[in-house]
TrEMBL record:
Its cofactor is (6R)-5,10-methylene-5,6,7,8-tetrahydrofolate; FAD. This is Cryptochrome 2. One of its GO terms (molecular function) is DNA binding. It comes from Oryza sativa (Rice). Residues 412-433 are annotated as: Disordered. Signal peptide: none annotated. It holds the Pfam family FAD_binding_7. FAD binds at residues 14, 26-30, 69, 169-171. It comes from the Eukaryota.
Amino acid sequence: KMLEEFVSHGLLEYSKHGMKVEGATTSLLSPYLHFGEVSVRKVYQLVRMQQIKWENEGTSEAEESIHFFMRSIGLREYSRYLCFNFPFTHEKSLLGNLKHYPWKVDEERFKSWRQGMTGYPLVDAGMRELWATGWTHNRIRVIISSFAVKFLLIPWTWGMKYFWDVLLDADLESDILGWQYISGSLPDGHELSRLDNPEVQGQKYDPDGVYVRTWIPELARMPTEWIHHPWDAPSCILEVAGVELGFNYPKPIVDLHIARECLDDSISTMWQLDTAEKLAELDGEVVEDNLSNIKTFDIPKVVLRETSPCALPIDQRVPHASSKDHNLKSKVLKASNRSSICVDMIRSSKMEATSSVANSPVSRKRSFCETAFHVPSYSSSAEVHSHIQDHGGSLVGPSRYLLQEAGRNCVDEVEDSSTADSGSSISRQRKAA
């Protein structure tokens, strides 16, 4: 019944009431969700049905409120995910560097915070409401927890345990998520260096001072202008309001500027201890970032030649058509055995090239059958992709072509030699005649 009433009437103005900390401006469903009297699925179903109804009616102003409310429900479910996957988060920060954070174990400050005697009206009003009713607005919970962690440097686990003791809707997972979020212990939470001014927060969420006057009767007659920072009020104003700082209402427990300095010093100390621990784990080894000195590197300049030489390395060198005569020349060759000598030369050159390719670094990564050669430009595609030697041991591809050319040259030279010999014999016969 309470859920249906909220969805029908309270949900429409939920986003506007979210900025007000006094009165029943929230759904008040968290205790019922915690004890299982209503499920999250039921809440989602009713909200979704109401959203469809408002869309059909053209009520566009409800979209922001629905988004704001469903985000709160989503954060509650996210706390379950966080605690399930990181079960140590009830006592340790999710970020490892915060284990070196110098928390101040100060019982007196912790007691003043619990009793609502810090001297900051909005914080004190929130703590007094929490103690009296077991309930307070989510905005107030954020403000008072942030004050304990950032101003007083009290360990966040102390505040988490206190909330667990006094809240009616005390939920371990939500409690852990809230305190880790505020203390800067989550990657997507508040920054550790963030310091919210309670005076500014009071003027934002309680501009008329109604909430402060409700829970701090000592400041009931304080003018609205000074209600959130009575320490700055003139003495005559304090006298008329019946406020005597340090007697019936405490002075600020810590100055804002001093709190800022202490927080910065604590963060600096934390990072120093974290760095020292990492260096100790290296056991004397220092890891240096080379990118920081990249501009000072002495890198030799490489000058490329405008025209690259035509000669190839030995393991890639294959006879060209222009060099076939040079490879086949012999100083003294007889016509009777010149053809066999050419064949032996080509086969020996093929064996030498094969041996050099097999010993090259490239060949260690590729098999002999996949070796790439520089083929003459006039070779056909079939000859380009053919292997050097087939399974039968006969020459194929460019080697066969060169062998044929060499054979033809040898035959031509034999014929030329025979013709020359016959011509010379005829001339001798003519001379003899």
